[in-house]
Design a protein that fits this description.
The complex is a heterodimer of chains A (324) and B (347). With 324 residues, chain A is mainly α. Chain A has a single domain, classed as ABC transporter involved in vitamin B12 uptake, BtuC, CATH 1.10.3470. Chain A contains 15 helices and four strands. In chain A, strand 2 (165-166) and strand 3 form a beta hairpin. The model of chain A is unreliable at 1-14 (pLDDT under 50). Chain B has helices at 2-9, 24-28, 32-56, 63-88, 96-110, 122-145, 150-169, 179-186, 194-212, 214-224, 226-231, 236-262, 273-283, 295-314, 322-337, and strands spanning 174-175, 188-189, 192-193, 264-265. In chain B, the strands form two sheets. Chain B has a two-stranded antiparallel sheet. A two-stranded antiparallel ribbon of chain B has the order 2-3. Chain B contains 15 helices and four strands. By secondary structure, chain B is mainly α. Chain B has a single domain, classed as Orthogonal Bundle (ABC transporter involved in vitamin B12 uptake, BtuC), CATH 1.10.3470. Classes of the chains: A mainly alpha (324), B mainly alpha (347).
Chain lengths: 324, 347
């Protein structure tokens, strides 16, 4: 086609250097740019706040990373997070701390269900999860009777472990780091992790090598669902409320975080570390826009454009014969 | 045995021959008879649904309720016409909600409204449809120019549209004050609101495009097998951009109707509409793999979704569960209609 796209198709031009170095460089540049305008941005206090604000996005994006690495996509994470927030807000008064495992287990169950629909019925993942996201969104509306549920004073004691600060570090940051480290190790050092990358890199080859592709995929969706629910729980605790549309605005930023970090939408290439950088970029851009004076209502324009640009740069076109 | 002999008469199409060998027992399932049954399955579902609901609650077949159904189907039908063309190509368009938001916002901001002094009347309608058409044009160019999958391109355009719309509205709702434009939803002709007639006109245009133009033929050809279509002289890039633009124009009309019905535009005017449109297309029997189905299928699909929604209200089922039912319908329809023999790897 055009000369530009031919250039991009040359091996080595985009795949290696750009994908590995661009995201961290972009992050450093963005932070430096904002620090020029607002020197106080580099204070420990502000940076801690940025990290705390990124935590939920990062946890969502980590789950999404597992699915995208497999070459699929999960469009149900925002619905699962919202449902989890509703469950926590509703069950905290009666179950206390027991509400958290219930909410997170719900995410696990629906994640597995999405995976089974995807591999069992052989429905493409974006349709399977669009549909399961609709199912979940309907259930969340039903459970909450269409309203937002406030976590009352009596229930707030139970959310303390999320909202508190330990040794100057907000607990949400600690939780996000735990999730990130666990995700990193699962992908790099477990059999499931290696299988995931193999399936994403080349499904026929993985199948021929004896990898149980179906089980690997279902596990990926299960992790995505579980982490989505965890993110929803944390969001509910931070906002002291649960609502069936609480996380609706987080789907695009979460996918964008994964892709901007340098994980290819075609699968097989990427890791949780990249997603951490991607999530930070998204957060810093969001904060930066307010500093530079871009209207906050326009943030979706920026994220949409970033998503398209990042997909165009990171995608591995040799894997798709016809781009549909 | 008969199945096997029939299978011999209809050898696998060439596009299937690339992958691993097909098992005859599975191939037999895809005989013409089965195909014909499958093509009419959505109609059976619709008829059965109508009968069941009518038995459970006779109010269903009252004229007043049928008009209510027609009115509720107007916007989804117009939207789904656009989505159909994109899905026929084997692509997907997730930008419907963003395009509706753009069209509705353009309309209310250019027509008489309670936020600024403009009063362009019907020119506002034209501008709204064009704005949404431009979003489609953008999607088509992003997909073909940057060569990225359509669901990612349109996911980005969805949020760009939503962002532009929220930005223009400043996060608030703006009311539409032009009586003539409000009349699109309020004025009735032969008992039906004008919006229903406009939706029917959109359907007629869509039927014309699909069955009587070269573009319609090319869209189906690309969905059936892009490599073959290209070798036969179809310019896939131009057809793709045209299809996304047409989809955008239909979304624009739907956005105008939605704004007229609501009497305003706000940041959530598109919410849930993408889901309804895709459900309708898929439930109607248009294959996500492309090349199979069409706008008539989508008409049936829209009626199924709308009748079911109406029936649930009549039967006293919580409206909140509607999305859940639609989600399950998508899964059931895709699972039963996907030509999985063509899909060696499902991603």
């Amino acid at each position: 086609m055009t000369a530009l796209s031919q250039l991009r198709d040359l091996p080595g031009v985009s795949s290696g250097a750009l994908r590995n170095l661009a995201p961290p460089a972009l992050l450093v540049f963005l932070v430096g740019f904002i620090a020029l305008f607002v020197p106080s941005f580099l204070s420990v206090q502000t940076l801690t706040m940025v990290l705390a604000d990124t935590a939920v996005l990062f946890i969502l994006a980590t789950g999404e990373t597992f699915v995208i690495l497999l070459g699929g996509v999960d469009l149900s994470i925002q619905a699962l997070a919202s449902l989890a927030s509703v469950i926590v807000a509703q069950l905290l008064p009666s179950l206390g701390l027991g509400a958290f495992p219930v909410a997170i287990a719900t995410g696990l169950v629906f994640g597995i269900a999405s995976g089974i629909v995807h591999v069992g019925l052989r429905v493409p993942s974006f349709v399977a999860t669009l549909a399961s996201g609709g199912v979940v969104a309907g259930l969340a509306l039903l459970a909450a009777h269409g309203r937002a549920i406030t976590i009352e004073e009596s229930g707030r004691g139970y959310t303390e472990w999320i909202n508190a600060t330990t040794w100057g570090v907000p607990n949400v940051v600690a939780i996000a780091v735990l999730v990130g480290v666990a995700g990193f190790f699962i992908l790099r050092y477990t059999r499931f992790g290696r299988f995931s990358v193999a399936v994403g890199a080349g499904e026929p080859a993985a199948l021929a090598a004896g990898v149980n592709v179906n089980r690997t995929k279902i596990t990926g969706f299960a992790i995505s669902g579980t982490l989505a629910a965890l993110a929803g729980v944390i969001l509910a605790a931070r906002l002291s409320s649960g609502s069936p549309s609480l996380a609706n605005q987080l789907l695009l930023p979460a996918i964008a975080a994964v892709i901007v970090g340098g994980t290819a939408i075609t699968g097989g290439l990427g890791n949780v570390g990249r997603t951490a950088i991607g999530a930070l970029i998204i957060s810093v851009v969001r904060i930066g826009m307010t500093f530079v004076g871009v209207n906050i209502f326009a943030e979706n324009i920026v994220f949409g454009a970033m998503l398209i640009a990042a997909v165009a740069i990171t995608i591995d076109r040799s894997k798709i014969a016809i781009i549909k | 045995m008969t199945l096997h002999s029939e299978q011999a008469e209809f050898p696998p199409q060439s596009r299937n021959a690339v992958g691993a060998p097909r098992r005859p027992s599975l191939a037999a399932w895809k005989t013409t008879a089965a195909r014909r049954m499958r093509a009419f399955a959505p109609v059976f579902v619709l008829v059965a649904l109508c009968i069941l609901i009518a038995i459970a609650n006779p109010n269903f077949i009252e004229l007043r309720n049928l008009i209510r159904i027609a009115n509720a189907a107007a916007v989804p039908l117009t939207l789904a016409m656009g989505t159909t063309f994109v899905i026929l190509m084997g692509s997907i368009d997730l930008s419907a909600e963003g395009a509706v938001a753009i069209a509705a916002t353009t309309l209310v901001l250019l027509a008489a409204n309670d936020s600024n002094a403009s009063n362009f009347g019907w020119w506002a309608v034209l501008a709204a449809v064009c704005a949404s058409g431009f979003m489609g044009f953008l999607s088509g160019n992003i997909q073909t120019g940057l060569r990225i999958p359509s669901f990612m391109a349109t996911l980005g355009v969805w949020f760009i549209g939503l962002g532009v719309s929220t930005y223009l509205l400043g996060g608030s709702a703006v009311r539409l004050m032009d009586p003539a434009l409000r009349g699109l939803a309020l004025t009735r002709f032969l008992e039906l609101p004008l919006s229903v007639w406009i939706a029917l006109a959109a359907l007629a245009v869509a039927i014309f495009i699909q069955y009587f133009t070269r573009l319609g033929l090319h869209i189906v050809a690309i969905g059936g097998g892009e490599d073959l279509a290209e070798l036969s002289g179809v310019n896939p890039r131009r057809v793709r951009i045209a299809a996304f633009t047409i989809a955008g124009l239909f979304y624009g009309v739907a956005g105008v109707l939605a704004a007229a019905q609501l009497g305003q535009s706000n940041s959530v005017i598109g919410d849930g509409r993408l889901f309804a449109a895709i459900t309708a297309v898929v439930v109607g029997g248009t294959a996500l793999t492309g090349g199979e189905g069409g706008v008539i299928n989508t008409l049936v699909g829209v009626l199924i979704v709308t009748v079911l929604g109406n029936g649930m209200v009549l039967l006293g089922i919580s409206p909140y569960i509607q999305q859940t039912v639609q989600g399950l319908m998508i899964i059931a329809a895709v699972a039963s209609s996907l030509d999985r023999l063509r899909l060696k790897i499902v991603k």
